[in-house]
Amino acid sequence: MVGLRPLLWPGVAALIASPGLAVLALVALLDAAPPGETERLLDRYALHVLGFTVLQATLSTILSLVFAVPLARALARRPVFPGRGIVIRLFGIPLVLPAIVAVFGVVAVWGQNGAVNAALGKAGVAGLGPIYGLEGILIAHTFFNIPLAVRLLLPAWESIPGETWRLAAQLGMTSWPIFRLIEWPRLAEVLPGIAMLVFLLTFSSFTVVLALGGGPGAATLEVAIYQALRLDFDIVRAVFLALLQVVICATVAIVLFRFARFSWSEAGAGRITMRPDSLGRPGRIGDALVIAAGIFWVGAPLAGVALSGLNGPLAEVLARQDVWLAALRSVLVGLGAGVVAVMVGLLLGATSCDLAMRRHRRRLADVLEIAGSQTLIVSPVVLGAGLFVLLLGHVRVFDWALPLAALVNGLVSVPYVLRLVSPVLRRTAAHHDRLCASLGLAGIRRIVWLEGPLVLRPLATALALATALAAGDLTAIALFGTEREATLALLLYRALGSYRMDEAAVIALLLVVVCLAIFVAIEGLGRVVARA
What does pTM read for this prediction? Predict the structure, then answer.
């Protein structure tokens, strides 16, 4: 790690492995794009797909922020209430939940045979319409994005000094002036960045749109790329759509990195401040209703997955050999992706730490870490499409479905590793470099005695997170997988597509259990080893 000298080669190796591979995939796409084909390819279908992609991403972003701001404000106004910590943890579950499982949960609650329609039917009220299409996509996206936006918005309120609230109380300020004069300036700094991040995530959404789109009329660029490769085997169209998506995502990402500001500070975390607008009964009732609505929106699909799975044909599904083989493949893909993510993330983190802390090149170090997060621009489907085109004609691509799925998922998870490990490496260098130099502690001895124990726990968390996310991912395996190489996520998607909802319920529950068991086992093992 940072005890090795010189430390430029790890970053070079990581650049070759992560953004370098993405660039190679893009070069393969460019090479496969025939000249003079743009006019033919930019036809009515392509324009429709592009328009729908922008429409659903824009609506998802607007709806997510419209509901996330009052929810985050209600949580900020109520820093103490029974179960607040559980609510915050609940809002973290969608961030790591397999997307295909969340789709099943949304269908179980909001579908035509879901819990909401059943309750409306008992009340004698007309039920909701079909969930497949734009409506279902928006529901699923807001399920994911509202909790994400809330967790990104809360630090903006926590960063407001206590003196500001005392002054507001002395001036007798009410709720609206407080929001307009105190809270909104803070929100205005972070909202554009959060909006662009949510837009990017929904613009490149794949699993949600594939499962809930309901047909070609509700296809995004990601889904159209998949359909062009796997269903039509139209490589030219797939290349064109992939390049179109990269150009748009790169433009938005450049704006995001250049102008957006995020409030990641935890300076106010755990600090209890009394606001003058939090004492009245109307405010308490309003905040309670908003928080309850947020709990229902996130908790109902999770409860739907658990209840539907437990009430489904458990014994019948769990007795099938193909289900357990799919579970084994899911674990193997997850472990492979976790190893790739940790290796690349550690190499990038070590070099960025050396550049920032010892060579005083912080901007270059930050650029290096941003390069490791290229998946905001080159999505898993685009990366997979590039690898597909690159390898086609050289190897039997579908025979390498699991290793390719692990590779793609591993590169996608590198940003999580960087976020967890890089701050520890930089903090260790800042606090201990001089002491290590005076003691002559360097190289392998420094890694074993100093950095290893300090980085082990966050590294185990990063490995657990990357492994669990990859084990439940559908994107890469849908692109490369076959009937012989199906994972649990692919089995669940096929069950949903065939409307075998009872079978899908059990598979969804099993997938959640597998992902949770992977995360708990790896993180727990890391905690035990770190204490030893």
Answer: 0.80
